[in-house]
């Protein structure tokens, strides 16, 4: 397979981590003319009997634009994508919010996309990049020298790079090497995901319910399917995951008040822990963090992946605009990247964490406050337009 060896030992950039953000960053950097090493495993093929991925993302306009620029979006199987034209949100005291792409004067509010669909297109694009070397092993040693970062690999090889990009997730090895301090708050919730065939048409609408401190979302998929993301208390999540498909479908029908009629579970339930995670710095000499290595937020707004892709886009943009005399690992250059991301990351963390706290408060007073707040937002077109604009990235 082209580009899958580690014969070239010196690179402009080494990207550690092979999720969507890491692969997108690697592709964008190599398309910018840089020699890039990607330390990652290729995407595992989706099981032949799987109707849809368990992991689904709601991609914003900014993410779509980035993937279009990299010529990845055009290569996706668009029959497996679903636009979101409307979003309906219900509070636990029956207040309702409606967001419309038409009213916001945008083509769509988001695109619902399977994780493996994007990863497979990224993999295909990466294989055609002559400046990219794909190394299927992990890093186990990092030594930052004045003129290069030296990475020791698990296969015994050693590579050098001007810049190391840590895209290796919430438990980032790269982040640990630079001593970036992490603050993590466990929400004591688990995100339960599964996919269903719905009896009633979803109308390209995303639905969300806030109920008893938990958040339930149904996102539209092609051919009358929907994707569930249920942010449930950990003990409740364990009970949901233990249900058989028919029992889980019945539980979802009940909590969503039959909004989409009878449901048939087509993808087994999976769970992932939810937490808020911040780091004290995104950069160090010759190192930059992106994606979940740099931040972790609650999925209630579906913005975590979009935030990570904006990290990748910002890093590439800062590098593209650097002065000719600056090295890629120059702390001045990397601080520009860090400053460019602080406001976006901070604002989204405050918003998602604040909403999670607000809707987790027990009692009738808290419920009344939430209901009043949602009603006020619903009555203000300018506020609703601003919220849509923020979600679009």
TrEMBL record:
**Which InterPro entries does this UniProt record tie to the protein?**
FAD-bd, FAD/NAD-bd_sf, Ubi_Hdrlase_CS, UbiH/COQ6, UbiH/COQ6_monooxygenase
The residue ranges of the FAD-binding domain are 12-343
Pathway where it operates? Cofactor biosynthesis; ubiquinone biosynthesis
Q: Which cofactor does it need?
A: FAD
Tell me one Pfam family matched here. Answer: FAD_binding_3
The record's keywords, sorted A to Z, are: FAD, Flavoprotein, Monooxygenase, Oxidoreductase
Q: Which domain of life is it from?
A: Bacteria
Which PANTHER family does the record match to this protein?
UBIQUINONE BIOSYNTHESIS MONOOXYGENASE COQ6, MITOCHONDRIAL
Q: Which family does it belong to?
A: Belongs to the UbiH/COQ6 family.
Specify the protein name.
UbiH/UbiF family hydroxylase
Source species, please?
Trinickia violacea
């Amino acid at each position: 397979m082209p580009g899958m060896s580690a014969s070239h030992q010196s690179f402009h950039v080494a990207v550690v981590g092979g999720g969507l953000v890491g692969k997108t960053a690697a592709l964008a950097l190599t398309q910018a003319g840089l020699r890039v090493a990607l330390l990652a495993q290729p995407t595992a093929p989706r099981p032949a009997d799987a109707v849809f991925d368990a992991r689904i993302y709601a991609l914003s306009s900014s993410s779509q634009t980035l993937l279009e620029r990299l010529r990845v979006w055009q290569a996706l199987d668009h029959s497996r994508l679903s636009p979101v034209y409307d979003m309906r949100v219900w509070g636990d005291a029956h207040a309702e919010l409606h967001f419309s792409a038409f009213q916001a004067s945008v083509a769509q509010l988001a695109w619902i996309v399977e994780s493996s669909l994007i990863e497979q297109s990224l993999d295909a694009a990466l294989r055609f990049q002559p400046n990219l070397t794909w190394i299927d092993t992990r890093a186990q040693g990092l030594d930052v020298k004045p003129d290069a970062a030296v990475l020791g690999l698990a296969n015994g090889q050693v590579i050098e790079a001007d810049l190391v990009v840590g895209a290796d997730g919430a438990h980032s090895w790269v982040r640990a090497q630079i001593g970036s301090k992490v603050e993590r708050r466990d929400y004591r919730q688990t995100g339960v995901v599964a996919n269903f065939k719905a009896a009633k048409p979803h109308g390209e609408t995303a639905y969300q319910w806030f109920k008893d401190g938990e958040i339930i979302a149904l996102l539209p998929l092609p051919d009358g399917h929907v994707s569930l993301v249920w942010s449930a208390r950990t003990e409740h999540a364990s009970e949901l995951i233990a249900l058989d498909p028919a029992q889980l479908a019945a539980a979802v029908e009940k909590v969503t008040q039959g909004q989409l009629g009878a449901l048939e579970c087509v993808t087994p339930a999976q769970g992932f822990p939810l937490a808020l995670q911040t780091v004290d710095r995104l950069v160090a000499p010759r190192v930059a963090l992106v994606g979940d290595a740099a931040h972790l937020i609650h999925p209630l707004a579906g913005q975590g992946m979009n935030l990570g892709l904006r990290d990748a886009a910002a890093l590439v943009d800062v590098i593209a605009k650097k002065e000719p005399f600056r090295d890629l690992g120059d702390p001045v250059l990397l601080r520009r990247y860090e400053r460019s991301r602080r406001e976006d990351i901070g604002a989204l963390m405050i918003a998602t964490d604040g909403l999670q706290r607000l809707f987790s408060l027990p009692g009738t007073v808290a419920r009344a406050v939430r209901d009043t707040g949602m009603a006020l937002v619903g009555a203000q077109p300018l506020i609703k337009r601003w919220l849509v604009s923020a979600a679009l990235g």
